[in-house]
Structure formats: C-alpha cells, structure tokens
Design goal:
9% strand, 3-stranded antiparallel β-sheet, mainly alpha, single chain, Membrane-bound Lytic Murein Transglycosylase D, Chain A
C-alpha cells in the first residue's frame, strides 16, 4: 500500500456533470458582469452633459423616450409628476409637452 489509507481517486465528471459546471460558471460570470456594469447597461447608458455656461446639465432625448421616463431616470426617488412639471417649465414646453428624439433638455438643478 503506497501513501495513506485515505487516498482518493481523481474526480471524474460525466457529460451531464460537465454541462452543469459550465452552466454554473457561465451564470456566475454573467451575474458578475451585470453587477459590475449595473443597471446603466439596461437603461441604455444615458449621456448627461454640461450645457453652455451656466445652463446646468443637459440631456438628449432618445427615440421613443418620454418626459416621464426622463424624469424617472433623473431622480428615481422623487415623484415623477413633479420632475416632469419642472422639465416642462425649465424648457419652455408649455402647451405641448411632447419631446422629439435628439432634442436637448435642461435638467433641474440637484
């Protein structure tokens, strides 16, 4: 008898076992990427930039986007109705609060 009495044979995986391990590793990897990238990837990675001198932050309206979606993304903890009204007032949208893709909107100050 060579070595200790508790020597074990190497682990051998069946085809099904290998599929389970590969699936598990892929799932953990995708979950890790999702945590790293965050919800920004799901939201399309909105680009907010500084407007011309003293105009505050600006956002560009994406195709199919509404004021409600912009308001909800701007301050998720706030009441979107209030933010929508602030966007309408700040950007002079008045009687027709619809927005067009490519339109630049000033965001309310923090």
């Amino acid at each position: 008898m060579s070595g200790s009495a508790h020597e074990h044979a190497p682990i051998r995986l069946t085809r099904r076992g290998r599929a389970v391990v590969v699936s598990f590793v892929a799932t953990v990897t995708l979950f890790g990427l999702w945590l790293t990238v965050g919800s920004g990837a799901l939201a399309g990675g909105r680009e907010v930039h500084r407007g011309p001198s003293g105009q505050g932050e600006m956002v560009v309206v994406e195709p199919g986007e509404t004021l409600w979606e912009i308001a909800a993304g701007f301050d998720p903890g706030a009441d979107p109705r209030i933010i929508v009204q602030r966007l309408i007032d700040l950007n002079g949208l008045g009687g027709d609060p619809t927005v067009q893709p490519g339109q630049h909107l000033r965001l309310p100050a923090g």
